[in-house]
Amino acid sequence: MTRILVIEDEPQIRANIQQILEFADFESWPAGNGVEGLEMAKKHLPDLIICDIMMPEMDGYSVITALRQDAKTATIPFIFLTAKVDRGDIRQGMNLGADDYLMKPFTPEELLDAVNTRLAKSARLSESFQEQIEEYKFEADYYKFHDNLTGLPSEVVFQENFSYLQKEAAQRQNFLPLWLIGLGQLDSINSIFGSVIGNYLIKTIAERLSNYLFKENQDTLAIISYLGGDRFAILGQPVADLNEIKHIGQDIIKTLYSSFEINKNEIFIRPSIGITFSQNGKKSLNQLLVQAEVAMKEVQKRGGNNYQFYKPTMELISARIFTLENDLYHVLERKELEVFYQPQIDLRNGKIVGLEALIRWHHPQLGLIYPGEFLNFAERNGLISTIDQWVLNKACKQLASWKKEGISGLKMSVNISKAEFFKSNFCQVIKHILTATGIEANCLELELTETVLSNNLEQTKQVMSELSSFGIKLALDDLGTGYSSFNYLANLPFNTLKIDRSFISQINNNPHSITVIKGIIKIAQDLGLNIGVKGIETPAELTFLQREKCQFGQGYLFSHPITASEFKTFFDFVASISLNSAQGYQGFWSNYYRGEIAKIRADQV
């Protein structure tokens, strides 16, 4: 039965209203004032309230204000009773949330018509509200089990399928395979075309993969899910033979090979796919995803558009990479970096003429780390300039220190990264270091690789010219490993050309290498450049370079990179035994001096 609360301070009017309502089969509750009515409304939550405006203690406006502020009573239909006909009073009540007005005196028909109209409207609103709730529930359930962007099964569904298939694989003693797909170009696509195009591309890729899964490989593949970002995961059916899953990675690449046309833009992607499996249901989904991610990143390192099975050694490598990348941020404050020095020998007379500064990282857990393993991380995280300046300072200070000890006339060669070379204040930094350390400008040689020069030839020329005006020497390092453009030699103010080890190592078994080296040396001589060689390791290489009139070289034949204290001993030892020719160095490092270095290091332990 519908319950109606009647709040009216006039007893006779209140009784008449109750009588009319009860005759029409409504249940009515009387309240003699606003305070009593408000308490009853909050306690019993009637289906409708009829309330007089003018009452002692609390008027009708105060009653409806209090009701509309309470979530439990805020939506109860409310009809005002009033003897006033002022429009302002009516508007005030409607603004406060009244649903209707009933003017005194009123007939039974007018009362019942107002009541039935309000109840019918309330019923319609309630029905509509319930429909909305059901829609919200349906949407919530849908998005619980489907991805919002792609419509693919959600990670919840993926996990449920995995749990079921894992048990099945364990019962059959089969393999449960997983493929993780990464789209390496998504960030670039979002940057160029915007996230709307990027999201549409993700949806289109999802459609292709779904068609591949459900139309062509229902017996092999079980479910595909979008994991967010640029990641898709596919779970396979349990299989007895791993050969059955090998072709899937290549098939996925073929599926995604053709271009995607989006808003008249032709877009190609290069998917990287990591593959792993659980044997007899022993691995969790999270373990498989981590392993597949490791394998997928190996593919990305090689340029993508391929697949790779997970190998346990990859995880060790990934853990090492993570440790190095993370710990690199603290190397300077923890004083873990050290500069080693490799002597440079005049090949015409065997004298030590200079050194190359080479950085090493003494990692507290991983031991001695060489620059090839961590400098690329420094370039990515922006630390490379700071490290470059640290090495420059350290090497120049060391050269000044040796000069005070009587070792003079040496040149210090330091490699410079692209990031540091193209900084706007690079030349000022170099001048400051020279001033602070007190070394002459012509004792410092900056080594630039071909990849540095390829950035901007005009800007490169401007910076190099300013450095040359200081008196600093400039060397083209690792010739042959970059773009090999001799345009650099003709148009940039280099003093020295350094030939890479990769050329020299081929002279004994590749006649073409000899021809190339001779050509490089001839060009350098015609341009008036000094010629240096890195990586001299055998007497045959040394003899060849001497015959071709190379000025100086460095390599394991003479000395490995050594510490500052070891170089002092090296310099004194060489002077004491009077090695006055390049031939005298043949076998010197391995036969004599390596033993001296070993003694020094043993004393330091």
Describe this structure in words.
- It is built from 23 helices and 21 strands.
- 51% of the residues lie in helices and 20% in strands.
- It is of the alpha/beta class and 605 residues long.
- Helix 10 packs across helix 11, helix 13 packs parallel to helix 15 and helix 15 runs parallel beside helix 17.
- Strand 18, helix 18 and strand 19 form a beta-alpha-beta unit.
- The mean pLDDT is 84.
- The strands form 4 sheets. Strands 13-14-16-17-18-19-20-21 form an 8-stranded mixed beta barrel, surrounded by 4 helices. Strands 2-1-3-4-5 form a 5-stranded parallel β-sheet, with helices on both faces. It has a 5-stranded mixed β-sheet with strand order 7-8-6-11-12, sandwiched between helices.
- 33% of the residues are buried.
What is the SS-derived class? alpha/beta
The tally of helices reads 23
Distance between the termini: 96 Å
Strand order of the largest sheet: 13-14-16-17-18-19-20-21
Specify the biggest β-sheet: 8 strands, mixed, barrel
- Mean pLDDT, rounded to whole units? 84
The percentage of residues in β strands lies in 15-25%
Low-confidence stretches: none
What coarse outline follows from CA principal-axis ratios? Answer: elongated
Number of strands: 21
The percent of residues in helical segments reads: 40-55%
Radius of gyration in whole Å, from Cα? 42 Å
